[in-house]
Amino acid sequence: MAVMGIRWLQQLEQALAPYPYAYPALVLVALVLVAWLANFVTKRILLRSLRKVIARFASDRDNKPSLRVISRLANIVPSVVLARGVEIVPELPPKLVGGLQALCHAWTVLTIALAISHALDAFNSFYERRADARNKPIKGYLQVVKIVVYIIAGLSIVAALFGVKIGPLVTGLGAATAVLMLIFQDTILSLVASVQISGDGRVRIGDWIEMPSQNADGDVTDIALHTVTVRNFDNTITTIPTKKLVTESFRNWRGMQESGGRRIKRSIFLDQHSVHFLDAKGLDRLGQFGLLDDYLAAKQEELGQWNQRVAADHPEPVNARRMTNLGTFRVYVERYLRSHPDIKQDMTLLVRQLAPTPQGLPLEIYCFAPTAWAHYETTQSDVFDHLLAILHEFGLRVFQESSDAMLMTLRDQRASEAEASSQA
Predict the structure, then answer these.
(1) 309-360: per-residue pLDDT in tens?
(2) Which residues are paired to 369 by β-bridges?
(3) Which region, left, alpha or beta, applies to residue 379 given φ > 0 means left and ψ of -120 to 50 means alpha?
(4) C-beta of residue 336 within 8 angstroms of C-beta of residue 330
(5) What secondary structure does DSSP assign to 207-250, as a single string?
(6) CA pseudo-torsion sign 310, 313, 319, 322
């Protein structure tokens, strides 16, 4: 069979002898057709069969990355056919043969590099399904491997196209190390930052971070070699250079989310002129509050015993201890928070006075509520709605800077009264 094929080619060559370039062109066209046929058989038959086999053992999500790698590698087949077959094409100049083989080699190297890249993507996709993948992402490391693969592929392609060996080419590039360091300084810094971030776990996918210098306030959605992607709460996207998370400060709310409680730290500014001692009528009125029953009884007994001891030497009323509306209100706020179902009772809870300011006397509430944003805001609003509304029961007033609206109202009222009296 092979002998008959060779004889047929010899007869065809003799028949086309009067036409100088007919036989080489015909052989070259036949070679291209063989390469196309090899590509067709590889992709349409072998790859389709392989796809069916893989589908039996893996889900569609698993198929796509692996098949992309295989389809990339399938592109090598026609390149190899052309590189080997071009040698048998007669009357082709050696330089042309060498150039075509160099192009085929470059295409093969590029195809292998892309296949490795897809394989790394598939590995990262598989790794991200693990439970601990959020804590230690590897995407940055894989991107470094991709860079190394592309650099090696680029050097190999250049060496093949220009007909030089890769060893001397790498040696020549050694002289340009300083320039390369300058070009890739961001990549090097990002690599170091990625290693630190992955090692100490300062940022993980899903963390809520706040970085005002980069206008970032939202959840981390991706950690790559050069950038960390944050989806802000207004649905905008912010990309932060990875090195910024090492060189600049930011706030990570992960600790708050893991603890199960988000802090409430707000103050009610009270008018100091409304602070006074409680008389018997005020004590009777506050005795109606169920949260203050035992407190009022215990406090009155304590003050009564104190005042009896002091009255023997200093009977003047000024020396006696008395309860104040502010102190009683502070106890009420603490007990109200202790009985609130949405306030974390196993975490710090304080109600304290801060130093007076020109805006009034701050009474600070320090406690912890659920971490869910909407639930947290609802709980905080409910607490302060109640406290602001019940202040007048204790004879207290909120300090609020007045505008000229009250003065204008009084002026208009007096003008109306003056006009009415003049008409009378």
Answers:
(1) 776 676 776 677 888 999 999 999 999 999 999 999 999 999 999 999 998 9
(2) 262
(3) alpha
(4) no
(5) -EEEEGGGTEEEEEEEE-SSEEEEEETTS-EEEEETTHHHHS--
(6) positive
Torsional sign, CA 330, 333, 336, 338? negative
**Two structure tokens written together for 355:** 């130093």
In the structure, what pLDDT confidence band is assigned to residue 258 with cuts at 50, 70 and 90? confident
Contact 342, 370 (CB under 8 A): yes
Indicate the DSSP class of residue 273. Answer: G
312: number of CA atoms within 13 Å, CB side? 4
Q: In the structure encoding, which two tokens stand for residue 339, read together? A: 């009985």
The residue assigned the tokens 């890769």 is 166
> What is the DSSP secondary structure assignment for residue 394, as one 8-state letter?
G
Other beta carbons less than 10 A from residue 121's beta carbon: 16
| Per-residue confidence band for 144, with pLDDT thresholds at 50, 70 and 90 | confident
Q: Which of 73, 221, 209 is nearest to 137 (CA)?
A: 221
For 154-171, b where at least 16 C-beta lie within 10 A, e where not — what string? eebbebbeeeeeeeeeee
**Contact, 291 vs 336, CB < 8 A?**
yes
Cα–Cα dist 78/83, whole Å? 9
Q: Given the structure tokens 């990339």, which residue do they identify?
A: 72
